[in-house]
Structure formats: C-alpha cells, structure tokens
Design goal:
three-stranded mixed beta sheet; 49% helix; 6 strands; three-stranded antiparallel beta sheet
C-alpha cells in the first residue's frame, strides 16, 4: 500500500479542522484522520468530576489573566514573564488536596500536643519505692577459667561490664 502525501498547507497544521478531520504528527510521518465520535462514550463519575474540576480551573485561570492586578501578583510569585495560566490551573486543581493535607497535619499536631501535656499513667498510681540495685561483682582475669572467656572478656585490654559483672585485669 502506498502512502499518500498531504498537501503542503495541511502539513503545517496540527490538531483538528472543525469537527471533521484531525491532523496528527508522528516521528514517522503526518497523517490525517477522521474526528473522533465521542457521542456513545459514557464517562465514569471520577472522569466527570475531574473534567468539572479542570473546567473550573480553566475558568479561574482565565479570570486571573483577565485581571491585570492579579496577573501581576502571579508574575511576582513566579518571577518569570510567562506561565501564569498554567500555574493558576495547577494552583486551583491542587487547592483541595493541599487543604486536606494541611488539615491532617494540624490534626496530628493537635493530638501530639495533647499527648505531651497529658500526665503519664504512672503518676496517677501510688508511687512505689525505688528498687535498690546490687553493686556489680568484681571478677579478675584469674577467675575466668577458659582461654575463650578471656579472649571475649578483654578486647584490647579494656574492661567490660557484662550482665552485672565487672571485669578487671
């Protein structure tokens, strides 16, 4: 099958021509297709909510661009000349998500603060007398029977306290 070449004036166009044709550019060539018929497609509830959110975000971004003062504020925030529209759409779409994260963070912080200021349960009970500890038993190197115990008891001539026993050289 031979490829048909598009006329030159159609090769410079991308996207749709009315609601009849679409011109698509791929790395292997340019093609012209029929405009997709979306009348029989049923969008899910999630798709509809995302589309509605995006529609509201676009309206918000257009209102920001239309107002000169708001646009200057956004440009100061961005510190560049272009990109106000995209940044406004992004801000609007993430607004609810960021508010939810902030609310969760504040809730966690309130809970941790409440737990810090709460009295420990041991203070509510009757105070028990402190347990007296026995002094550690001193063992000299002559008391250690095997060479293996000597090797593990003193490493580099240092003394170690192990399970209530004080090792001395």
């Amino acid at each position: 099958m031979s490829k048909k070449k598009l006329p030159l004036h159609l090769m410079m166009i991308r996207g749709s021509l009315g609601k009849q044709f679409c011109i698509k550019h791929y790395k292997w060539g340019i093609i012209m297709t029929k405009f997709p018929d979306m009348t029989k497609i049923k969008a899910s509830a999630g798709q509809r909510s995302c589309r509605n959110l995006f529609r509201e975000a676009v309206a918000y971004a257009k209102s920001v661009i239309a107002d000169k003062e708001k646009k200057k504020e956004w440009q100061k925030r961005l510190r560049r000349r272009n990109g106000v529209y995209n940044e406004a759409v992004k801000f609007y779409m993430l607004k609810d998500k960021l508010a939810k994260q902030r609310e969760e963070m504040l809730t966690r912080q309130l809970i941790s603060n409440a737990l810090k200021h709460q009295q420990p349960a041991s203070q509510n009970m009757v105070d028990k007398p402190p347990v007296e500890r026995q002094p550690p038993k001193v063992i000299t190197m002559q008391d250690i029977s095997s060479e293996r115990d000597k090797r593990f008891a003193t490493v580099g001539g240092l003394r170690y306290v192990t399970e209530g026993y004080l090792l001395s050289g």
